[in-house]
Amino acid sequence: MKQPSYRPKGGKRPFQRRGDQRPRATTGQNRPSAAEDGRVWLFGVHAVEAALNNPKRRVQRLLMTENAEHRLAEAVGARSVSPERVTPRDLDRLLGPDTVHQGVLLETEPLPDLSLQDLLEQADTGPLLVLDQVTDPHNVGAILRSAAVFGAGGLVMTRRHSAPLDGTLAKSASGALELVPVALVQNLARTIDELKEQGCLTLGLEGTSDAKIEDETFAGRVALVLGAEGKGLRELTRKSCERLVKISTSGPIASLNVSNAAAIALHHAAWKRAQS
Prior knowledge:
- By secondary structure, the protein is of the alpha/beta class.
- It contains 10 helices and 10 strands.
- Helices cover 33% and strands 16% of the residues.
- Helix 6 (137-149) packs parallel to helix 7 (167-173).
């Protein structure tokens, strides 16, 4: 397949990677989520703008259409980044024609790793969210967005069997990936035990539970533990949680999408804490 050529503004050389390798063209069925050397590709106006405004993001390269450059002029100027001018078709070749890139692609290093202790030290008093093998990046992105809206203290995920913190997730999060601290852990059951040792009430969302989330006071530090759609919480995760609670429903469908469940739980927690 013929490689795409990127001609930046000012007649400079086509966009190339270090080592003189150009990014490979791809299709929507085989879309890369990160650069080969471990760097992350972020796309979409809100995701890229938030990344540029995040001093913890180490920016490598920025590809933009003329229109996107105008829209993000302030964020680009604040970073003193020299964007490389491309066309929408150039980005389609890189990311796939179905990707809603909005004319911008940022190549950046991943955010610095946070340990659970780091997260607890820097997080505010809002609830923590703990995800048990939620692998859909759209769901995790939506959860992050709700976490930012309702003031969650942070997000905990396992390093394996979780959605990668890359472009698709960042686009769905609409900038929240840069705002909500995320800790990646090896063992979720052990992490829940550590949270309990730190005085954190761990509530597992389980639709079959008799206890209701509406009866929780959300006083003090709380962690909401959510499982993947279909599987829900794994058995060991359920046993590790201090209590299992459900979101009350009254319609003909009793189950919720995990991102919707997270939003409802966070809203309820914020409302309860505001009353106290």
